[in-house]
Amino acid sequence: MDKTLKQTWNWLPQQMPGVAKLLADKRAEVGEEWVRHCWAKGVIERQPGWFFAGEGALMIGVLWDDPVILAFAKLRLTASQCMLIIKPKDANHGA
Questions:
Q1: Could you say which residues of the chain have pLDDT below 50?
Q2: Smallest Cα–Cα separation from 7: which of 55, 42, 50?
Q3: Where are the domains of the chain?
Q4: What residue spans of the chain are helical by DSSP H?
Q5: Could you read off the pLDDT of 1-17 as tens digits, one per residue?
Q6: What's the pTM?
């Protein structure tokens, strides 16, 4: 993916509308700063355990080595399904 596109999620509403909605909900829940931090770690820096999203055949971020998450992701999302997984915000990782 183009580095400029990876730095923002402006392209998401058109390409992954379900994920864009989940991101908006997550920003309202945990804050814009934390979601941006997870995006930077998981998408831009490609570190596992920070950010993963999928909608239909499109996926972004890095899955982490968790048997439950890996099994779920292998089920292959249909065109009408989407998922978003980001590291939980806690005392050890507060942004």
A1: 1, 5
A2: 42
A3: 3-86
A4: 3-7, 12-15, 17-30, 32-39, 67-74
A5: 455 545 666 888 899 99
A6: 0.77
